[in-house]
Design a protein that fits this description.
This protein is α+β, with helices and mostly antiparallel strands and 181 residues long. 34% of the residues lie in helices and 28% in strands. It has one domain. It contains 1 helix and 8 strands. The strands form 2 sheets. It has a 5-stranded antiparallel sheet, covered by helices on one side. The protein has a 3-stranded antiparallel sheet with strand order 4-3-5, with no helix packed on it. The radius of gyration is 28 Å and the shape is rod-shaped.
Length: 181
C-alpha cells in the first residue's frame, strides 16, 4: 500500500497564517489611530499659533491707528488704549485680553492664568469672549502683557495655553514694538 501526501494546509499552518494576518491588520489600525491623535494635537497647536498672531496683529493695528491720528493733527500717544496710563487694560504689569470680533481690549483680574477661556462662534468660526447663541467654550486661553523697555519701545508677550488629550500645552510669543510717530 502506497501513502500519498495531501497538498492542503494543516490546521496548525492555517492558525499561524490567521495569526500573522491578524497582527498585521492590528498594526495598521494602531498606526492609523496614532496618526489621528497626532493630527488633533497639531490642529490645536496651529489654532493656538493663529490666535497668538491675531492678537499681535490687533495690537500693531492699534499702534498704527494711533500714529495715523497724530499725522491727522490729533495728538495721540502711540500706546493710547493699550498701555498709555495706569487705567489702560494692558498697562505695564497688568494682564489683558483682546476680543477681536468686538474690537475691545480689557484687563484680566490677575497675572497669567487669570483670563477666561476663549469661545468660538459655531457659524462663523470666530474666536472671542462672547457667550450664548452659537458661541461655545474652547480649550484656548490667550493672555497679553506689556513690559516697558524705553519711552519708545515695549515688549509684548502673548501667552497661549490649552489642553490636548489631557496634556497641558503652552507657548509664549514676544515681540518688541516701537513708536512709529
Amino acid at each position: 500500500m502506497k501513502y500519498t501526501r495531501n497538498k492542503g494546509f494543516t490546521l496548525v499552518e492555517s492558525l499561524v497564517a490567521i495569526s500573522i494576518l491578524s497582527l498585521s491588520i492590528l498594526a495598521a489600525f494602531t498606526a492609523v489611530q496614532g496618526g489621528l491623535q497626532d493630527s488633533t494635537i497639531v490642529k490645536d497647536r496651529i489654532t493656538a499659533f493663529y490666535l497668538a498672531q491675531e492678537a499681535m496683529e490687533y495690537i500693531k493695528n492699534i499702534r498704527d491707528e494711533n500714529a495715523l491720528h497724530s499725522v491727522g493733527g490729533v495728538s495721540t500717544n502711540w500706546l493710547h488704549g493699550l498701555a498709555e496710563v495706569g487705567s489702560d487694560p494692558c498697562y505695564f504689569g497688568k494682564t489683558c485680553k483682546i476680543d477681536s470680533p468686538l474690537k475691545s481690549v480689557t484687563v484680566c483680574s490677575g497675572g497669567f492664568g487669570s483670563c477666561p477661556l476663549l469661545n468660538q462662534d459655531g457659524s462663523t468660526g470666530l474666536f472671542g469672549y462672547t457667550s450664548g447663541g452659537n458661541w461655545s467654550s474652547t480649550l484656548f486661553r490667550r493672555e497679553i502683557q506689556f513690559s516697558q523697555i524705553s519711552a519708545n519701545e515695549v515688549l509684548v508677550t502673548i501667552k497661549m495655553t490649552w489642553t490636548t488629550r489631557g496634556q497641558a500645552k503652552s507657548f509664549q510669543v514676544t515681540e518688541e514694538l516701537f513708536n512709529r510717530q
